[in-house]
Amino acid sequence: MTDAEIVAMLRRYKDGRLSEREAVAYLEKSSVEELGFAEVDHARERRQGFPEVIYGEGKTGEQVLAIMESLAKSSAGSVMATRMSAEKAAFVQERLPEAEYDAVSRILYIERPARRDAAHMVLILSAGTSDIPVAEEARLTAHLYGNVVKVHYDCGVAGIHRLFAHRADIEAANVIIVVAGMEGALTSVVGGLTDKPVIAVPTSVGYGAAFHGVTALLAMLSSCAAGVSVVNIDNGFGAGVLASRINHLR
């Protein structure tokens, strides 16, 4: 429910056109929609500034469609479903043609207009090309959350001169997301180059001893660089949301 809808309901209550019981029932019904397999939280946009995001993995196409339709009707902001297969996304798009699918990030979304402050930029750096799917999940998430986002990919420590070529953007960024697998060393290097918040995203990229991202996760958690926070392995979405919240602080 939007602020305008709440105000309109309160005016009806104040004018006597709505009883106290009806007003309470209206608020309860409008905040959570029961679909049988899901309870859609329509109040989340008012509480947190962005509608509930659908985690697509493990859900059927029919379930994602029903939740997405519900959110699209009630939300002013963009609607997202993460970790969507191409087949599942195509099923939803047949019935919801305004939805767009990004195959790299695996995000299905309906984009709504958002005001973006060019003076507050989120920068995303990936260590390697193999890290791009996770980095793209972070990029598209931050974009849909209403941020100006810039990316530089494949600038890891194996050729550190590639990173130094982007020093101007590192200095200009308001928040930096670093996405890296293998040994995750890029996070510490970037953390030592900036006074801005750094969000580290370990990826499951790497040979055997990388342990599907555990090595990068532990390296990032153990970073000697101050001002670094770490999200879960391959969690580009979480990094994009956190970067957006930091970026919108004024």
From TrEMBL:
It comes from the Bacteria. GO terms for biological process: 'de novo' IMP biosynthetic process. SMART domains: AIRC (SM01001). This is Phosphoribosylaminoimidazole carboxylase, catalytic subunit. InterPro entries: P2CMN_synthase_LarB, PurE_dom. The lineage of its organism: Bacteria, Bacillati, Bacillota, Negativicutes, Selenomonadales. Residues 120-249 form the PurE domain. It holds the Pfam family AIRC. NCBIfam families: LarB. GO terms for molecular function: hydrolase activity.
